[in-house]
Automatic annotation (TrEMBL):
<keyword id="KW-0863">Zinc-finger</keyword>
<keyword id="KW-0862">Zinc</keyword>
<dbReference type="GO" id="GO:0061630">
    <property type="term" value="F:ubiquitin protein ligase activity"/>
</dbReference>
<keyword id="KW-1133">Transmembrane helix</keyword>
<keyword id="KW-0808">Transferase</keyword>
<dbReference type="InterPro" id="IPR001841">
    <property type="entry name" value="Znf_RING"/>
</dbReference>
<dbReference type="GO" id="GO:0000325">
    <property type="term" value="C:plant-type vacuole"/>
</dbReference>
<dbReference type="GO" id="GO:0016567">
    <property type="term" value="P:protein ubiquitination"/>
</dbReference>
<dbReference type="Pfam" id="PF13639">
    <property type="entry name" value="zf-RING_2"/>
</dbReference>
<keyword id="KW-0833">Ubl conjugation pathway</keyword>
<dbReference type="GO" id="GO:0006511">
    <property type="term" value="P:ubiquitin-dependent protein catabolic process"/>
</dbReference>
<keyword id="KW-0812">Transmembrane</keyword>
<dbReference type="GO" id="GO:0016020">
    <property type="term" value="C:membrane"/>
</dbReference>
<keyword id="KW-0479">Metal-binding</keyword>
<keyword id="KW-0472">Membrane</keyword>
<feature type="domain" description="RING-type">
    <location>
        <begin position="171"/>
        <end position="212"/>
    </location>
</feature>
<protein>
    <recommendedName>
        <fullName>RING-type E3 ubiquitin transferase</fullName>
        <ecNumber>2.3.2.27</ecNumber>
    </recommendedName>
</protein>
Length: 229
């Protein structure tokens, strides 16, 4: 599915008592009037404490939004990127002391304007990666990193928020953290995924779920690796 995202926000300076210090997230899809409905559920909303949305990477509300986007036809990597951009916007607004304070409520909208299917979409979707290249991917047994001090965690937290294209220690296809002794596959671009997830992914696609790095397609006559920006 091809869609154009739009991000908007509004600060409620006089919210109800129960909404003070919260972020209310709304997401919806807008389709052309002549487009046949393909989405089973096209609206999402949730309300949560502001610091949970900006600081908690594993927030259950973020996971709900992620699966809503995926179930509505958004690719996994695009859903992940949209949530990161929404989080970055929330961090930017809530850190602006001239515009926002903890007594306010923040309302955010993610609207996706769905475009009709076009020739590019028909030609590019469901083209699996070369089986030989997928089988040749580097694989390793995951080992959980040693815990660092709380000070070190605080120093690296901001950096992690800025790494909008990094999967870290989580598979963004299934949105689950890697577990010790789990088999992890590494692409040539450096991104890592649960081996079972990426194997299923490449049965119908040939690009990295995060950065669009492409493997040769199964139907390519001359194998060649390219990166699409």
């Amino acid at each position: 599915m091809e869609a154009t995202p739009e991000f908007n926000y509004q600060i409620d300076v006089n919210p109800e008592r129960k909404k003070i210090g919260t972020i209310q997230v709304y997401s919806s899809f807008v389709r052309p009037a002549n487009m046949q409905p393909i989405l089973t559920r096209s609206n999402f909303s949730c309300s949560l404490p502001a610091n949970e949305f900006t600081d908690d990477e594993d927030s259950p509300h973020k996971q709900r939004l992620y699966y809503f986007l995926k179930d509505s036809g958004v690719d996994a990597e695009d859903a992940y990127t949209l949530i990161i951009k929404l989080t970055q916007l929330a961090c930017k607004v809530t850190s602006n002391s001239f515009e926002y304070c903890s007594r306010y409520a923040l309302l955010m909208w993610l609207t996706l304007d769905v475009a009709p299917s076009n020739e590019y979409e028909r030609n590019s979707v469901f083209r699996p990666a070369s089986k030989l290249r997928v089988e040749a991917l580097s694989r390793r047994i995951y080992k959980r990193k040693r815990k660092t001090s709380s000070i070190a965690n605080q120093c690296t937290r901001y950096k992690r928020k800025q790494e909008s294209s990094s999967s870290g220690d989580k598979c963004i296809i299934c949105f689950q953290k890697f577990k010790t002794r789990q088999e992890v596959a590494t692409l040539l671009c450096g991104h890592e995924f649960d081996n079972k997830c990426i194997m299923e992914w490449f049965k119908v696609r040939h690009n990295c779920p995060l950065c669009r790095f492409e493997l040769p397609r199964e139907d390519d006559q001359v194998p060649q690796l390219t990166t699409v920006f």
